[in-house]
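Progress against Task 2.4 (sequence-to-structure conversion) is shown through the following example record, which the project officer requested during the mid-term review.
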Amino acid sequence: MSEGHSNVTRLQEVRHRRAMRRLRRLLLVLAAAAAVGLYFTGAYSQLALAARETVDSVRIALMPGTGWPVKTGIPEVLQAEPLAGGFVLLGQQDAGVWSAGGSELRTIQHGYARPAISAGNTRFCLYGRSGYELRVEGRTSTLYKRTFEQPILLAEMSNGGSVAVVTQSDRFAAELTVWDAAMEFRYGWNPTDTEGTPVRVAFARDNKRLAVACLVAQGGSLQTNLYFLDIRSDAVTASASVSGQILQLHWLSADRLLAVCERTAVVLDAATGEQTAVYSYSGESLGSASVAGQNCALLFSPDASDSPARLVVLDPQMQVLAEASVPSPATAVVCTRVAAYVLRQESVAAYSLAGELQWESPTETRPLAVLDAKQLVVVTGGQAALLAAPDETQQS
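Structure tokens generated for the chain above:
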């Protein structure tokens, strides 16, 4: 090899190494810029939080259970809600989170005079009605805290991590704000006195649309105005009105909303606000309602204490799938995708979605809630236990 050719080769190698160093420096600068951009846009914190929640899910799933029943330390349960891989119980002084295996994950002493929670997937919001502070809680730690200028009337957590917060307002009937999973402001709506005060909020599954039920006095009676909102739009996308109060709101699908009212259960088209199906129970007293998937279970209280209660299971078109007579006392119903569970004085009765009594399992004290938390869990004062047919319970 000639000396000139060797020099050319070495020069090419030097230039190549310099080019590679410049390329690596450029990539490092771009990576740093991207990290800074993600940080200031909030995407970095959201990604980090999502990663932490995924790690929590894996760790909780692998955590050995402590065995059932478990002592909860909450004698008076105000609310009981399922969480991904477990459940949360709210008491007058504190809230507790348990895994599906029965392990206690954490206890929160909230100190709120009128506490309330709303759960969605892996997290829940905890606040005091008429208070100013709202906390977004994970299964193992507090994620965010925010203090509002006006008292909080209600809050609703979506499965995507967004939170809708309704507060009092000096100028309007109320103020509704929507905060994303990183607790950044995304949307605001101020209903007028004519539109009414929000009393129920429900997020659609896309995490971008929501239905808001607003209560207003009109002509000497109460009326509920229902508004469909989209955080990508400044205008109300659709509206409807129903007589009386709306007790529950549930999205059955991307375009259909179920409103459980005092005297009717109504399905509405989310695009137009028009009623597409209705089930009327005027003259009966609705004691409890529960929705799972696209099915709805209604429990009607009897006129006399010794008369049986009536259980009705409805399909998405509000047609009766099943009816059953339930011996009194019957205090509440919890619907799952496979059965309807009726809470009685000291037992839980399981009815198929065809209305047939499958079994009845006794409880030591009055059942307060039944949760579908990977396994069926029945909550009583100070205790939570697995719920199953009596023969299955004896075998386990």
